[in-house]
Design brief:
Elements: H1 2-13, E1 15-21, E2 25-30, H2 35-42, E3 59-62, E4 66-69, E5 81-85
Parallel strand pairs: 1-5
Antiparallel strand pairs: 1-2, 3-4, 3-5
Length: 92
């Protein structure tokens, strides 16, 4: 049990490199850190509306495939880097 707790603590303390495209901005983040907070620290603007994930104003593309609402998403543990694409949705 102690080994599992140690492994979880180590994962949470690992630095994850977050790349924001198309701005080509890079910042280090911790697992579990809110994505909007990471973007703000990097000087990257992600628009928001409701801050609950229902309006989808903050939708971004992760790793070139999935779209997520940045306002309700944290940096995931278990990877060394994360690529966020700030595409422009013509509906907004």
């Amino acid at each position: 049990m102690a080994f599992q707790q140690l492994a979880i603590l180590q994962l949470a303390s690992m630095s994850i490199r977050v790349y924001f495209l198309p701005d080509d901005v890079t910042v280090d983040a911790k697992a579990g850190e809110p994505l909007l907070q990471v973007a703000e620290r990097a000087g990257v603007f992600i628009p928001t509306g409701c801050l609950m994930g229902s309006c989808h104003a903050c939708e971004v593309e992760v790793e070139g495939k999935d779209t997520i609402c940045a306002c309700i998403t944290a940096v995931p543990a278990g990877s060394e880097q994360l690529t966020i694409n700030l595409y422009v949705d013509p509906a907004w």
